Amino acid sequence: MVKQEATTIGHEDGRVSSIAACPAVRVEDEGRRFWCGLFDGTLIEIDTETCKVTSRISSAHSSPVNHILRYKLQLWTIDDSGVVKIWTPNVNKQLSLLEKSPAIQIAKKQQVAIVVRNELWTAKDRNLNIYAYKSGHIGNSFEQVETLDIFPEFGNFTCLTKNREGTIVYSGHMDGKVMIWDTMTHSCVRVVPVSNYRICSLLCVRERYLWTGFATGRIYIYDMSFAHWNLVKSWDAHRSSPVTQLIFNSSSIFLCGNVQIASFAEDGGVKIWDGMLTRDWKEKEMLQRDAEFCEFRDIKVLICSWNIDASKPQNLEEEEAAAMESWLSAIKDPEIIVVGFQEAVNLESKKVTAKSILKFKNKSKSKTNEEPWTQRYKLWQDKLTEAIGRAGHQSKYELIHCHNLIGLFTCVFVKVSEKPKIQCAAAGKVKTGFGGLHGNKGAIAVRFLYEDSSFCFVNCHLAAGQGHVLQRNNDAATILQTSVFEPINGDKFVFVKGGNGTLITDHGLCFWSGDLNYRIDLPRQKVLELIGRQEWDKLYENDQLQREQSQNLAFMLRSFTEGPIQFAPTYKYNPLSNTYDTSEKQRIPAWCDRILYRGERIQQHSYDRHELTNSDHRPISAVFTATIKRVLPQVEKVQVDVEAAWANYMEKIYHHGMENWLVECGYPREIVKQVLERDYNITNAANFLNSQY
């Protein structure tokens, strides 16, 4: 966020319903005068330099002024009754509330409006109206050229934005979809479902990026240059208050030295953001050249996950204990072994539930006063330590982190020889069960720095139920959007996407495992037949997680990758057997247990299930090679080069900003280009054009 000083301008008029900056032909006047529309139909003008209301007209409109739009040097005011007034500049090329403006009628109660080249686009509910603006010596008018109703399966219009040239319009909708419109044909050419939440505001930035403000208070930035839009960045901008408007001012580049984007929230909050994503740009450039200032080496990582269905370690038979050792040695001598359990205790226990929700704390530290599930964790910790020691690894391992959340249990082991290279180990947890009150569902995340690379390991248990895909998606989103860790400041090139280590996805090497609970959308008998024929690909086509990753743009786990599944579904078995569920419910077999990864320098070698039968789930494992780095002193030279490249890039943006601002003032683009070639100074160019046109 860009830090700015704020000034409050008071006035004795009514509540403001719309606001817009007055067009200026002189650079020094840019952003000085604003027009505000009020709920009683009054228009006022505010001078930001003197902080005073300089003009007022109460007879302009008889109902709330909902929209004030700019068209070249004009302003169009639109009220709730559908009256439009066009305010044109006087001989001094300035707008004045004292000038007469005839009323033009369009459709009433238009909720959103935008000027697209020489057209006015407005929308209400599911109805879109397009008017052609006609200007001439006999006056100004609007001719309705289109009225379109979108299909009932799409949500109501909530906002409109356009690209710079006005060839494309993007509309946001109540149901989280974005519709893309061709302005030449006035037709919708594509629908992109980006979220399950209401879109409140949209802004197209530099033709490629779509800033999207949601009812949740979050802002997402999508890169539209990909066939499947890529989520570039997301953050909690306004703490759950809907982001009602996103505004870009083309003059900010030459007035403030950067592209600034303002977000407005329903609670009255206003924030200014770096529209260039400067830190992200520089980080990307540095990462592309990291071979010039880093030393790399490969390490092996073993991820093991198992929903143990409240099994006790002492109940493992000799054969099961041997199978566990095999599970924990899917590869010999990895640098890191991460083990995650789900349902380590009985989640149906009312006592466990009450303790979790009410957060009762026992002040006594003695083992005699420990709760049974606390003792259970200790027993499993000891069992895992013993099993890894007996698993045939040549190296010795040390437990560096152990963490639990009712039902979830994570242990991280590293080679003793590698432990000195690990720093800043920490753990965090996110509860999603019962609205975040109960730990029966959620995640444990463990992170650390390994030399100059950042790792994060997530052990999660998402919402159960064949039809609860949306709840699982929401659980994953909650986990990924929660600030799990304390920030680590000052460690450059350790984290990614401009992060500071508070979020899971700030880390360069992420592993996401656990009982994700995604099911297979086929009848039980069909699934059993395909399992019998080992037709894993046909099963995978109907896997819910695969479909969400490939088809749902809003799915927060889309940035994670999963290796090919070439084993039978791991759920649900009759305990102590190899038979799928024969209970009254006869659940459909599914790959509930999964391991995903995220990071450019991760290679997966294996993905397997293991035959421990104590639980109704089978354990799984995955082996990876992760490339870690050590930053060298040469980094300083590369930083200097990147800063120089950034300066050159911003010079081009600065030029485009000047050109676009002058075009917005109504001057032809070709003439503007010629003037700027002769005189690169924006003030001189504006004054020259003002004197000639």
Give a verbal description of the structure.
It comes from Basidiobolus meristosporus CBS 931.73. With 693 residues, the protein is α+β, with helices and mostly antiparallel strands. Among the domains are: 14-105, Beta Barrel (Thrombin, subunit H), CATH 2.40.10.480; 294-351 and 373-631, Deoxyribonuclease I, Chain A (4-Layer Sandwich); 639-692. Helix content is 20%, strand content 36%. The protein contains 12 helices and 34 strands. A 6-stranded mixed β-sheet has the order 26-27-25-24-34-33, covered by helices on one side. Strand 29 and strand 30 form a beta hairpin. Helix 2 (278-288) packs across helix 10 (635-664) and helix 10 crosses helix 11 (669-678). The longest helix has 30 residues, at 635-664. The protein is elongated and about 95 Å long. The model is unreliable at 356-370 (pLDDT under 50).
Features:
693 residues, alpha+beta, Thrombin, subunit H, Deoxyribonuclease I, Chain A, 5-stranded mixed sheet, 12 helices, 20% helix, 36% strand, elongated
